[in-house]
Specification:
Length: 359
Amino acid sequence: MMSKLSLHMFGACLATLSAASLFDQQINSKSSHFPRLSWKLLDTPSDSRFRGLAPVSDKVVWVSGTNGTVLRSEDGGGTWVSVGPVLSGEDANLEFRDIEAWSTAKAVILSIGEGADSRIYTTEDGGETWTLSFSNQEASAFYDCIAFESPERGMAMSDPVDEKIRLIETLDGGRTWDIVDSRGMPPALEGEFGFAASGTCIESVAGRWYIASGGVNPGRVFRSRNGYDWEVSNSSITGGEAGGVFSVQFRDKWHGIAVGGDFQEPTGAVNNAAWSQDGGKTWTKSTSFPGGYRSGSSWVPGLWDTALAVGPIGSDFTIDSGRTWRGFDNGTFDSVKCMAGPVCWASGENGRVAWLTLT
Ligand SMILES: *[C@@H]1O[C@H](CO)[C@@H](O)[C@H](O)[C@H]1NC(C)=O
Ligand SMILES: *[C@@H]1O[C@H](CO)[C@@H](O)[C@H](O)[C@H]1NC(C)=O
Ligand SMILES: CC(=O)N[C@H]1CO[C@H](CO)[C@@H](O)[C@@H]1O
């Protein structure tokens, strides 16, 4: 819990770290058939830190973050409208660490924090009005991330309550939420929790569900075929008080990547990425790692075996399903999400939002 709160405060010093030497090494070892990727930074009217990122298409994208900020663009990031809920007093400091969106109209946002600061708001009119659809009542719950398997069914994940990761579920697109019976959830280990770093600590693909954890060594990945009955395995990613698996993403029922590291050691570039080809039962460490702690990852739809990872000191890609990673940018981002196109979006501190195409 402490670690997660300080995750917020560490942001400032990370920006000053240099990854120059790592980055150079990666460039030099890059063979010519690797794609040339570069982020195109977009102007946003905000200096919030956007850990919440929800592209809908190559034109429509929503970001959410600190100071209760939610922005939406409908023209590929050329212009932005501030569409967050009207918040007053202390609520104006709410941090929307995750967002899911389906159109220019419909979005769900998750704010983090202890007790009633963990909330979910939904909008169906593009952010003109928001409904508070969930407000946490459990003192020890701390919600980290949210995912949907369909426009109707979604789940949000909290740090353990009574020694088990807490889930809430919606079956009506976020309008109402219920606590999921924890009988099907294996016990959490002492100190285990999730990272509210990029909205990818819970994930749903092809009807399956995955949860990434840290605070323990190694970080672990939970998996489920229905969201109710869960199994868990060790990843190969080094964990610790501020470390573990920050992001887990699956391409299909079998192929997954996991990235992370230690947010207090952002230049640590060993055992910070792993891959699975058996639906998350077993994880194998990558043979070349991303160039530092990475908070977010995304497969690239339509480009077999390709995925991106981002973190506060750089971005990397893999074209072999996570076996090897190469750096391509040293700018700071927290979150990444790729769409058909393919086009990828990234977001992070200081209002940073960027875009790239892979062709
Ligand atoms: C955002 O919130 C932080 C912490 O509450 C505060 O220090 C900062 O001034 C706020 N920034 C803006 C632009 O309101
Ligand atoms: C997972 O890792 C822990 C800590 O190293 C170890 O005690 C445990 O045996 C591992 N579990 C499996 C199934 O390998
Ligand atoms: C520290 C470092 O490597 N900075 C480089 C980051 O990338 C930009 C553009 O790609 C370079 O101009 C910097 O020198």
